[in-house]
C-alpha cells in the first residue's frame, strides 16, 4: 500500500539514462503463487514479487557482422514485472505456467498479452544441478523469446548447452544470453549482474505513492 520507487544504475546500450526507475524494497506484491495443470497434475509456482518499472530500449541484432542497433521507442514506458521462484523443473512446465499466467492477466484486463506485439515478454533463467542435489547451479538468463513455443525451445537448447559445458569440464558463466530462433541456439550478450551491482537508491523525482482501498 506504500509503493516506493528506486533507481538502479548500470551501463547498457539500451539504457540511455544509465539508470532505470524500478521498485526494490517495497514492490506492489510479494510471496504469492500460481497453480497450473500439466499432465493431470496440479503444480504450484511461487511468485517472489510483482513490481512496476520503466522499460529499457531494445537491442536489434540483425545480419550485421560487428555491430547491433538500439531502438529507443519503448524506453520509459511503464511495465509490470512478475518474478517467479525457481520452482519449474522442465521446459514444458515453463510453457504451461506461461499459458496459465497469460489467461489470468487476460481475465483481469490489465493487458492484451500479445507476445508478438511486445505486451507480454518472458526472460527465463536457467540453471541445472546433479540429480538429488538441492543446490542450484550457476544461472544464465535467456532473452528474445517471442512466443511460448520459443520459450520452450530456448530452454531445451540452453539446458543442453549447460550440460555440454559441464560434461566437458568447463564452468557455466552467469550471463545474459540471446535466443536465435532461426539458428536454434543461444549466444552470449553480456555478463549478468547481481542486485547489489545496480546500486539501488530512492528516486528523488518520483515520490512514494499511498494506495487507498475504497
TrEMBL record:
Keywords: ATP-binding, Ligase, Nucleotide-binding, Protein biosynthesis, Transferase. GO terms for molecular function: ATP binding; glutaminyl-tRNA synthase (glutamine-hydrolyzing) activity; transferase activity. It comes from the Bacteria. InterPro entries: Asn/Gln-tRNA_amidoTrfase_suB/E (IPR017959), Asn/Gln-tRNA_Trfase_suB/E_cat (IPR006075), Gln-tRNA_amidoTrfase_suB_CS (IPR017958), Gln_synth/guanido_kin_cat_dom (IPR014746). Residues 4-211 form the Aspartyl/Glutamyl-tRNA(Gln) amidotransferase subunit B/E catalytic domain. One of its GO terms (biological process) is glutaminyl-tRNAGln biosynthesis via transamidation. SUPFAM superfamilies: Glutamine synthetase/guanido kinase (SSF55931). It holds the Pfam family GatB_N. PANTHER family: GLUTAMYL-TRNA GLN AMIDOTRANSFERASE SUBUNIT B MITOCHONDRIAL AND PROKARYOTIC PET112-RELATED, GLUTAMYL-TRNA(GLN) AMIDOTRANSFERASE SUBUNIT B, MITOCHONDRIAL. This is Aspartyl/glutamyl-tRNA(Asn/Gln) amidotransferase subunit B. The lineage of its organism: Bacteria, Bacillati, Actinomycetota, Actinomycetota incertae sedis, Candidatus Hakubellales.
Amino acid at each position: 500500500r506504500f509503493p516506493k520507487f528506486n533507481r538502479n544504475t548500470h551501463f547498457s546500450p539500451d539504457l540511455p539514462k544509465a539508470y532505470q526507475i524500478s521498485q526494490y524494497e517495497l514492490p506492489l506484491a510479494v510471496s504469492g503463487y500460481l497453480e497450473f495443470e500439466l499432465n493431470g497434475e496440479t503444480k504450484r509456482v511461487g511468485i517472489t514479487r510483482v513490481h512496476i518499472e520503466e522499460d529499457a530500449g531494445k537491442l536489434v541484432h540483425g545480419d550485421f557482422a560487428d555491430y547491433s542497433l538500439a531502438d529507443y521507442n519503448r524506453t520509459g514506458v511503464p511495465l509490470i514485472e512478475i518474478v517467479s521462484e525457481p520452482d519449474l523443473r522442465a521446459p514444458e512446465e515453463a510453457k504451461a505456467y506461461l499459458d496459465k499466467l497469460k489467461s489470468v492477466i487476460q481475465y483481469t484486463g490489465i493487458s492484451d498479452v500479445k507476445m508478438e506485439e511486445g505486451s507480454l515478454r518472458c526472460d527465463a533463467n536457467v540453471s541445472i544441478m546433479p540429480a538429488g542435489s538441492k543446490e542450484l547451479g550457476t544461472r544464465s538468463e535467456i532473452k528474445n523469446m517471442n512466443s511460448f513455443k520459443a520459450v520452450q525451445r530456448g530452454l531445451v537448447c540452453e539446458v543442453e548447452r549447460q550440460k555440454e559445458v559441464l560434461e566437458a569440464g568447463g564452468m557455466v558463466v552467469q550471463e545474459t544470453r540471446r535466443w536465435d530462433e532461426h539458428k536454434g541456439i543461444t549466444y552470449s550478450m553480456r555478463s549478468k549482474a547481481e542486485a547489489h551491482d545496480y546500486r539501488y537508491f530512492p528516486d528523488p523525482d518520483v515520490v512514494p505513492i499511498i494506495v487507498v482501498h475504497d
